[in-house]
Design a protein that fits this description.
This is Peptidase M43 pregnancy-associated plasma-A domain-containing protein. It is a single chain. By secondary structure, this protein is an alpha/beta fold. It is built from 8 helices and 7 strands, in the order ααβαββαβββαβααα. Strands 2-1-4-7-6 form a 5-stranded mixed sheet, with helices on one face. Strands 3-5 form a two-stranded parallel ribbon. The chain is globular, with a radius of gyration of 19 Å. The chain starts with a helix and ends with a helix. The chain binds zinc ion (ZN).
């Protein structure tokens, strides 16, 4: 029994291969997966007709961004406004060339025992987010605070866009640890790329190592089938750590998405200094999903 227990509890450490958890975003729902499958077919047909996704064809989209800092006390809030502005600048350097601009609308700060951390999938998470959420479903609510119950070392997580109920609307957000901000305290993850990655999920993108048949976090094999459903991100079997130039984990099969692993892609797990791009196919997909799920009139005003 003890042996079994150690196997079970040993599994996350083996899977993560590190003390930190890069991303705690949960599995996407079947509706979002279905939209990816359908759009991948459209992309494929367009490419047969000679129409590739190009950055200069994307619409210009401005996303209102509401930042919420939470901490157990004002003394524990060590996130100055300048650091938040730096983070927004990092986000815009990654996204603006693809048509998305994130506009910092305001910053709220909440202190006290009830605001000491956000623990995913708890009543307290819903309480915190319900109290602070602003804007419509097309607007980004961006939380900066400790994540989890103190054991996880989670750097960030996001919700995916979906067809919304009231709770889904309230929970809709990106959450990051303050140590991941530019000039933050978490070594190797202190250039602001965690926020860029999580906003990728918020826009509907999957990990580059996504196994379409498995859950989104780390399990399964990203070499299989359609991976992340985006044609121009080469297949990748598992997350990249550090910056393993030349890594190629899906060789020798008949994939259409051949090529070296996309270790510089923001939707991988590499160190912040290694992450510097999205593919045009990913951003074409993000625009379609933003339009369908976040600007759709049935979804936008649930507040
Ligand atoms: Zn992620």
């Amino acid at each position: 029994m003890l042996f079994l227990k150690s196997i079970l509890f040993g599994l996350p450490a083996l899977v993560l291969a590190t003390d930190i958890q890069r991303c705690a975003t949960k599995s996407p729902g079947s509706q979002l997966k279905g939209l990816h499958v359908a759009q991948a077919k459209v992309d494929s047909q367009n490419r047969l007709n000679g129409k590739e996704a190009l950055d200069n064809t994307f619409p210009k989209v401005s996303v209102n961004t509401y930042v919420h800092v939470i901490a157990s006390s004002q003394v524990d809030d060590d996130t100055p406004q300048a650091q938040i502005v730096d983070q927004i600048n990092v986000i815009n350097r990654a996204y603006r060339r693809h048509g998305f601009t994130f506009l910092l609308r305001n910053i709220t700060r909440s202190f006290g025992k009830d605001w000491s951390s956000i623990v995913p999938d708890t009543d307290s998470e819903l309480k915190i987010k319900s109290a602070l959420r602003q804007g419509t479903y097309a607007d980004l609510n961006f939380y900066i605070g400790n994540i989890g119950d103190g054991f996880g070392g989670i750097l960030g997580y996001s919700t995916f866009p979906d067809y919304v109920s009231r709770d889904i609307f309230d929970l809709d957000a990106v959450v990051i640890d303050p140590g991941t901000l530019p000039n933050g305290t978490i070594s190797k993850y202190d250039l602001g790329a965690t926020a860029v990655h999580e906003i990728g999920h918020w826009l509907g993108l999957f990990h580059t190592f996504q196994d379409p048949l498995g859950p989104i976090i780390n399990f399964g094999d990203g070499c299989t089938a359609d991976g992340d459903f985006v044609y121009d991100t080469p297949a990748e079997s598992s997350p990249a750590w550090g910056c393993p130039e030349g890594r190629d984990t899906c060789t020798g099969n008949s994939l259409s998405r051949e090529g070296k692993d996309p270790i510089h892609n923001f939707m991988d797990y590499s160190d912040d200094s290694c992450l510097n791009l999205f593919s045009a196919g990913q951003m074409a997909r993000a625009h379609v999903l933003y339009q369908q799920l976040r600007l759709d009139s049935n979804n936008i005003n649930r507040n």
